[in-house]
Write a structure and sequence with these properties.
By secondary structure, this protein is α+β, with helices and mostly antiparallel strands. Helices cover 31% and strands 33% of the residues. The protein starts with a helix and ends with a strand.
């Protein structure tokens, strides 16, 4: 698939997911009864089906969850003018937030019911500047290890043409939800 074809496919997939999410509860917090007894993967799948709210930060920073599977989460982002730093490139915090979302949600898919996580360490390597001329990027997070107390994951941020813009790793603390 050529880069323009890949970009068109990404945008079409994003539109389909956005329409589904917009028809649901929108951004916010899930009620305890909506997530009770669900594994992390079941929660993420319910979010994609628009049965529970998605994270408000996604709307704020122009990115959204695209797909999930066991040990994997994919987010797609739109670099915008409001994400620029004073030098005219996309702010590193935008990269970090998008990658952290993919990493954390990948970990979340591996958790049994009643378990949660929080990011303990995030390492981000920006390898190429990004501007709004790049229409979309994808962050794909993959779990490396998921134990009872710690989980690790890695992610890559790429353009539709395969350009690598950043890569990241995380260590997450895994704990019992109360």
């Amino acid at each position: 698939m050529t880069a323009p074809e890949q970009l068109a496919a990404w945008i079409a997939e994003e539109k389909a997911v956005a329409e589904r999410l917009d028809a649901g509860p929108g951004p916010g917090l899930a009620r305890p009864d909506q997530i009770a007894g669900k594994t992390g993967l079941e929660m993420m799948q319910a979010m994609l089906r628009a049965e529970i709210p998605y994270a408000a930060i996604a709307r704020t920073l122009s990115f959204q969850l695209i797909e999930v599977g066991p040990g994997r989460a994919v987010f797609q982002g739109t670099p915008r003018l409001e994400h620029l730093n004073p030098l005219g490139t996309i702010h590193g915090g935008w990269f970090a937030t998008l990658l952290d979302s993919a990493l954390g949600c990948a970990v979340h898919t591996m958790l049994p019911a009643g378990r949660a996580y929080t990011t303990a360490e995030l390492g981000v390597n920006l390898v190429k500047a990004l501007t709004p001329r790049v229409e979309r990027v994808r962050a794909e997070g993959k779990v490396i290890h998921c134990g009872r107390q710690l989980a690790t994951a890695e992610a890559r941020l790429i353009g539709a043409d395969g350009t690598l813009y950043a890569h990241a790793t995380t260590t997450c603390l895994v704990f019992e939800m109360r």
